[in-house]
Amino acid sequence: EPEWVPVDAEIGCTYEQAVAAIETLGRMHRVFDDKMLSGHEFGFLPATVFDVRNAGHIQGYFTSILGSAQPLVQLLPPGAQATVERMAEGGLGESFERLAQQPLCLCHGDYRTENLRFSAPGRPPAVAVFDWGLVNVARGIADF
C-alpha cells in the first residue's frame, strides 16, 4: 500500500506526477464511457458540472451582467471581445448543452492538484483522487 503525498503548492507537481495524473484521468474516462454509463444507474448525476438543466439560467445571467462588465470586456483583445459577445447571444448556453452530448463519460468535476495524492517517491507511480462533490457526466474534455 503506497504512502500518499500531496503536491507542494509552492513548487507544483513534478513531470512524472503530471503524467500519472493525466493518465489516471484518461483511464477513468475510458472505463466509465457511454457504454458503461448506460448499463448502470448513473442517471442521478448531473450532466456537466453546472448541470445542463441550468444552461438557460446561466445564459440569462451572463447576458444580463454583460453591460456592467463592459469596462473589463474592453480590456480584452478584439477577438476575445467578439467571443464574449457571441457567448452573450446564446453561445454560453449552447456550449453547456454540447458538453452534455455524447460521447459522455464519468467526470470528477474538480480534478486539480489539491484533490490529488501521489505515491511516495521511489514507489510505482499511483494517483489517489478525492473530493468527488462535483462528480458529473459530460464529455471528458470538460473534466477540470
TrEMBL record:
Xref: InterPro entries: Aminoglycoside_PTrfase (IPR002575), Kinase-like_dom_sf (IPR011009)
Species: Alexandrium andersonii
Domain (Aminoglycoside phosphotransferase): residue spans on this chain: 15-137
Name under which the protein is recorded: Aminoglycoside phosphotransferase domain-containing protein
